[in-house]
Design goal:
about 700 residues; mainly alpha
């Protein structure tokens, strides 16, 4: 086994840098799912360095890269370039730069995994290693929650409102990062070429991943699951083996689910959940252990080939028949449990559209009480922005300003909560076409991998596609593009599926003797032109790599300075101001450093400096509602009624639903002064409530 793996690694030397990248994604999963720029920007530099190392150490023959992979890379590169270009027309150029850099990260990840061919064993090492690492992390999270169950305050911080947010900080992202690993674990566990112990570990791990995901009580994951089941059984080969493996895994999940959901119900009702947490942890780990041992036993029997081919065929037929019966039973049971499907669908649609948001849902379990949230309004605004800017969109990551101006809910989302609507609203029709063309080309290459000669390679391709598909399906109604800890593994799995596509052997170079001096001269000329093109390509690549490195580094260092200033301002405000000035120089597009400096000045009562800092912020982002409101309040305090009215009316236009802005404007119109200190206390309280 080890010698075969060593041979596979020699045949696919790009496996090593790819393995380092996947290890980086696991690190991101341990803390906020890679969301902060201070996490993913340095990670992007690491991926860029790994890509450069692979190009230098392994080399790359462009002619050997399959055409669909070239098209996919070209489209993703063009989409990345469009994201950077959107800085020119974005209302908030600093946010557009950050969004473009995140897209650049995904381009680098996809290139690192897709450009070089993989063999079945090396690909299984990559995907299996990442999946097992995520299983290990899920086990740690489950045990950590169990360990703090005796402290109500600590438990509530991990599961606010009865939903697990640790370690990502967002319940839906938390569920997604476990379920992105669940599907590869499930589909790899069915592969006979993997050792029986590994298959058992993966199957038991799938139960554990699902159990920990269920602690987040994510409706998105609940509705994404049946979609994934349809996609897996409709599009991926090996349906009978998938069903045979899914049965024990589903039984294990079902056995532990009631105790897991009980934890959320108790915490949501603010009741003591210590005993429930211990019960849920024990049930989940025990179910995972039993399923893992059962699958390992079955895999060991299969690998020993104790049964004849005819017996295996009959078992195959019986399992297929049971799968059909199970489907019928599930559909019938669903009708009994759910009731009239038409009525249920109408209730879901009504709650989804309701302006009441979460209050529109019925009482009872969060997973089945309705679809009420503010997403319908998010999507309405995103579509309206697409219709207003159909060609190029509003700019990467520039949704929040538009929602503040045109939304109807009290929420202030930064993102549209849908990867498709993000693409349409922020990069327009051109961006959407580039994304669709690139995705289609990548899936075409991956489909070839599903038909490749290497059975293990086919299994890994299917598992990688399932992991990527889950990210797309669940991300269709959530903001997962912005979590690098989710997006980067998704693009890595898509790239890995492309790397397993069969590649044509290198063309044989035939030399013709005696063709005369003209032929020899022509051959020399072609070689010289080829060398010139190669040098030109290397030069352009170096320039592009340097530009990418600068683009990733500057905002990262700027944010570090902002965070450093936020830590020291209470004891050393001048040091904080100096660091914020450095931050503003490092990131010449973002207004954040000036906003923070203005807020610090307000806390010290330095209205003159605060007004100056907010004015600098508005020079970079003229549509910033917060800076406009603060300048209006300062003008009112300093008895500049005309200036206050002008600024506060502008703030009300930018954020018409904000009650504090409307109240300040009303006071200014009545000729009264706005109390800046009181206003900022109210802003702080409101921010804490929204958090």
């Amino acid at each position: 086994m080890r010698s075969k793996l060593a041979v596979s690694l020699r045949e696919a030397p790009a496996t090593v840098p790819a393995l380092v990248a996947l290890a980086l994604f696991v690190v991101w999963a341990t803390d906020q799912a890679g969301y902060p720029v201070t996490h993913w920007a340095p990670g992007g530099l690491i991926v860029l360095a790994l890509l450069g190392l692979a190009l230098w150490a392994v080399g790359l023959r462009v002619d050997d890269v399959p055409t669909p992979v070239k098209i996919a890379l070209g489209c993703l590169a063009a989409y990345t370039a469009l994201s950077f270009a959107s800085i020119l027309w974005a209302a908030v150029p600093g946010d557009a730069w950050e969004g473009a850099n995140r897209t650049l990260l995904y381009l680098l990840v996809f290139a690192l995994l897709a450009l070089w061919p993989q063999r079945g064993r090396s690909a299984a090492l990559l995907l299996g290693g990442w999946t097992l690492a995520m299983i290990g992390l899920a086990a740690f999270v489950a045990l950590h929650v169990n360990a703090v169950a005796g402290s109500p305050a600590r438990l509530a911080s991990l599961l606010p409102g009865g939903r697990l947010v640790y370690p990502s900080g967002y319940a839906n992202a938390n569920a997604a990062q476990w379920l992105m690993a669940f599907w590869p674990a499930l589909l790899l566990a069915r592969e006979a070429r993997l050792h029986w112990s590994v298959r058992g570990l993966l199957a038991g791990g799938a139960v554990l991943l699902a159990g920990v995901a269920l602690l987040s009580v994510s409706r998105g994951s609940l509705y994404a699951t049946p979609v994934m089941l349809v996609l897996v059984f409709a599009l991926l080969p090996g349906r009978v083996r998938t069903f045979a493996l899914l049965v024990p895994v589903a039984v294990g999940i079902a056995a532990s689910a009631p105790s897991v959901l009980r934890v959320g119900e108790l915490l949501e009702g603010r009741r003591n959940a210590e005993a429930a947490v211990h019960t849920a942890t024990t049930a989940t780990l025990l179910a995972a252990l039993v399923v893992g041992l059962a699958v390992a036993l079955g895999a060991a029997i299969e690998q020993r080939r104790l049964f004849s081919a005819s017996t295996v065929g009959r078992v195959h037929w019986v399992v297929g028949a049971l799968a059909i019966l199970a489907l019928v039973a599930i559909l019938a049971g669903g009708v009994v449990v759910v009731g009239n499907p038409v009525t249920r669908a109408q209730h879901a649609w009504d709650t989804f559209k309701s302006e009441k948001g979460y209050a529109a849902n019925s009482t009872g379990n969060r997973l089945t009480s309705g679809l009420g949230s503010s997403r319908y309004d998010f999507y309405r605004v995103a579509l309206d922005e697409f219709l207003r800017h159909p060609l190029l969109g509003i700019g990467a990551d520039n949704f929040q300003q538009q929602y503040l101006a045109h939304g109807r809910s009290e929420e202030t989302p930064y993102y549209p909560h849908s990867v498709e609507l993000r693409t349409l609203a922020e990069t327009g029709l051109i961006g959407a076409l580039l994304a669709l063309a690139g995705l289609g080309a990548a899936l075409l290459a991956a489909t070839r991998g599903l038909r490749g000669p290497d059975r293990l390679g086919r299994a890994v391709t299917a598992a990688a596609l399932a992991g990527f598909a889950y990210w797309v399906v669940h991300g269709s109604f959530d903001w997962f593009w912005e979590f690098a800890g989710l997006g980067a593994p998704a693009f890595a799995m898509l790239g890995l599926a492309c790397a397993l596509a069969p590649r044509a052997p290198a063309a044989l170079v035939q030399s013709t003797h005696g063709a005369g001096r003209v032929t020899e001269t022509s051959s020399i000329s072609r070689r010289l032109r080829s060398a010139d093109l190669r040098r030109l390509g290397i030069g352009m690549g170096v320039v592009a790599a340097l530009a990418a490195a600068v683009s990733l580094t500057a905002p990262w260092l700027s944010q570090l300075e902002v965070e450093s200033a936020a830590r020291v301002w209470t004891k050393s405000p001048q040091t904080a101001y100096a660091r914020l000035n450095d931050a503003a120089r490092l990131n010449p597009l973002s207004d954040e450093a000036y906003l923070v400096a203005g807020s610090i000045a307000l806390r010290f009562g330095d209205l003159s400096r605060a007004d100056h800092e907010f004015a600098l912020a508005l020079q970079r982002t003229p549509s910033d509602a917060y800076a406009t409101l603060e300048r209006g309040a300062i003008a009112s305090t300093e008895n500049d009624r005309r200036g206050a009215l002008e600024l506060l009316e502008r703030a009300a236009q930018l954020n018409p639903r904000d009650s504090l802005t409307r109240q300040a404007l009303r006071l200014a119109r009545e000729g009264k002064r706005v109390n800046v200190e009181e206003l900022n206390r109210s802003i702080l309280v409101k921010a804490q409530q929204l958090a």
